[in-house]
Amino acid sequence: MANLRAIRTRIKSVENTRQITKSMKMVAAAKLRKTQSAFASLRAYADESGKLLAEASAGQAAITNPYLIPHPETRRVCYVMIVGNRGLCGAYNQSLLRYSEKLLKDSDQESYLIVAGRWGKDLNAAAGLKVRETFEISDTPTHDEALALANRLKRLYLEGTVDEIIMVYQHYRSVLSQVPEQMQLLPLKREERSSAGGGTIFEPDRDSLLDTLLDMYIGNTVHAILLEARTGEHSARMTAMTAAADNTEELINDLTLELNHARQAAITTEISEIAGGAEALRNNTAGG
To answer: How far apart are CA 165 and CA 187, in angstroms?
Structure first.
């Protein structure tokens, strides 16, 4: 009986775990749809603003803007690592952490590390990374959150605190696939501002609009990366919770089978004891 009670207790515990994982899967799926929709909407807008910037930054006007001019010497590189807000999302955070550690180790320049995401608060102690600044980013990053981060990065670059800014995040390929990737945010790469046609008419003029377009482009790029990273996080968590829920189903089936075998064994033992007792009673009666 003790064994039966232990199995029933374990089945109940696994059933509770199944309810939790299914709930987390549903929450992750809802957040994924919301973030995916925001990312898709922003990406189209960011692409168009990038095209306008490419034309506006072509020619002599581009040379005077500090965001388009590399520093004479790259001595300190700012890495902005976009991590998740919490765990239980498979290898999402750990793979990004390993990628970032290798990136920092292989770098010849001094590193200035900024972490965006609540999971990164303890990176300094857990991974030995020297985190200079942290930013909290919601599960569906807003434009204001992106602007706060973008403005800080622009200030670091303009003040000369850092000479290059690289975004490190999980590139979203599909619901089942996210890959660590890096992208140089500042200074803007030359190929991003090469103009092929130049058919756009700027009003009042190209120089006046360039600063506005640059601020818009940098803010949109940071926002798009934050949304892409969060889309990957929600996808990874939904996938992990789906696998966990499936595993609990299999475990419950195995435990139920084990419970049935234990119950049958207990019944067989009781029947044997009853039969043995009845046989002993008959022998005593016959002997008397």
So the answer is: 7
Q: Tell me how long the chain is.
A: 288
Q: Which residue in 274, 238, 242, 243 sits closest to 27, CA to CA?
A: 238
Q: Which of 251, 200, 233 is nearest to 89 (CA)?
A: 233
**Nearest CA among 218, 221, 210, 201 for reference residue 57:** 210
CA–CA distances in Å: residue 51 to residues 65, 195, 197, 251 = 17, 9, 11, 54
Q: Tokens at residue 68, please? A: 């388009």
pLDDT band at residue 235, thresholds of 50, 70 and 90? very high
Q: Give first-to-last CA distance, the chain, whole Å.
A: 36
What is the band of 54 on the pLDDT scale with cuts at 50, 70, 90?
A: confident
Mapping DSSP to helix (H, G, I), strand (E, B) and coil, where does residue 247 land? helix
- Reply yes or no on whether the pLDDT at 281 is more than 50: yes
pLDDT over 90 (residue 162)? yes
Instruction: Give the per-residue pLDDT at 165.
Output: 96
* Secondary structure (3-state) at 180: strand
CA-to-CA distance for 135 and 117, rounded, in angstroms?
A: 6
Residue 74 contacts residue 164 (beta carbons within 8 Å):
yes
Q: Tally Cβ neighbours within 10 Å of residue 158.
A: 12
Section 205-227 average pLDDT: 85
What's the CA gap between 62 and 52, in Å, rounded?
13
Q: pTM of this prediction? A: 0.83
Other beta carbons less than 10 A from residue 100's beta carbon: 24
pLDDT for residue 190 is more than 60: no
DSSP state of 92: H
One-letter amino acid at 41 equals: S
The pair of three-digit structure tokens given for residue 11, joined into one six-digit string: 């089945």
Residue 273 CA to residue 10 CA, distance in Å, equals: 29
